[in-house]
Amino acid sequence: MRPQSTTETSPLQWGETFRDGSRRMVGNDQLRANLRNATETIRSKRDARAAETQNWEELRHAGAAIKRYSLDHLADLLEELEANVTANGGIVHWARDAHEANAIAYDIVARHQVDEVVKVKSMATQEIGLNEYFADRGIQAVETDLAELIVQLGNDHPSHVVVPAIHRNRSEVRDIFTDNFEDGNRPSSDDPRELTMRARTHLREKFLNAKVAISGANSMIADTGALSVYESEGNGRMCLTLPEVLISIVGIEKVIPTWQDAEVFTELLPRSATGEPMNPYTSWWTGVTPGDGPQEFHLILLDNGRTTVLADPLGRDALACIRCGACMNICPVYRMVGGHAYNSVYPGPIGAILTPQLLGAFEDGDPSATLPFASTLCGACYDVCPVKIDIPSILVELRRRSVESGAGSGSGWGTAMKASSEVMRSGRRLGAAEALLPLGRAVADKEGRITQLPWPVSSWTKSRDVPSPPTESFRRWMSRREKAER
Known about the structure:
By secondary structure, this protein is of the alpha/beta class. The protein contains 23 helices and twelve strands. The relative contact order is 0.13.
């Protein structure tokens, strides 16, 4: 069911801190079992595809270089893209934030007097809360990707950027379909094939009656004005070809210079996302063609905090993400608590650096500023990232900003960090602090763990144990050794 939140404000930030969200989710045994099975399967397939690709590291290097070049020349590439989309019969709109993007899309739909649109899976529309915006104005946005449909019918939130319903098993999906489908289309079992066929029947009518479709895009080609969608079910192709009107809402960071650049991502994305050598369906469209496909095409270029992130010399690398989800499948934290604990449409390691930057949330006490702490810093996310985003380094930088903002706030964590900083800056003070080591050993349990400390360091022991101090400090050991060698 939809994650609980008392102060839901935005798809980028639902209200809870990561600590509160993870504490609630980690106790869900069914969720953890679903996540373990799904992520292990996808990881195995991804590793096999990467191993069998002889030039895999060269592809990663090329993908990283293309994304960095594109971000360095973003303004010029977007102007080139706009000119080519317009020349091909499309209409380009610029949206500074979620409200502007939603309002533009709604005006287009309202002009065509429809109360229902079909959608291709899109993280950009999740980010701006388009479905909810439309619903408030009497328009139903129907998700046509199977996993997104499960999430939508279950009144749920997505928990993964590629597999939004990864936290659901097939029995749960059967129950959702039974509750939402008409009598003749309700499944009689949890057989995956039957569930898929029921969803197909449900969606077929939606496709055939839709006048307007809404999509995102995996990439935009500046020198032609072409857009792409990679998908596995064919629903995207139905949305992109059958309706009369197509509205594509795309983050500005998705632009790349040329078709040749797109070849690299055609190899990197499916292997990293689902462990497939290529996507079953890859669609490209360029403006409008008389008598073929949508006759009205609108491209809404979404900023929503991206230009602010772009101005950050270190954090801007987060914009290179191609939304493959590989970092989530390997992250030990994500695999324990799932996507809902992050309280954002962007979960996992990439969400932990992207969400606080899009929101400008670096202040101690802001729920999104806690996301960079949702990591062990093991570096596995960097190892699998197809465009080599150094997520661990950005996590450390965002942690620094949060800690420094809270150092003088009077909070327990801030006070503890400030006190420890003063001690560690001075060898004399650090030596004096060693006098407390016997006390630490005295309060440790039989297994050598300290499980509870007084305020302000109680913030640490609420979620972690502290090992019992050694009987001799390194300083004293070194001093004793030097004396013995004289």
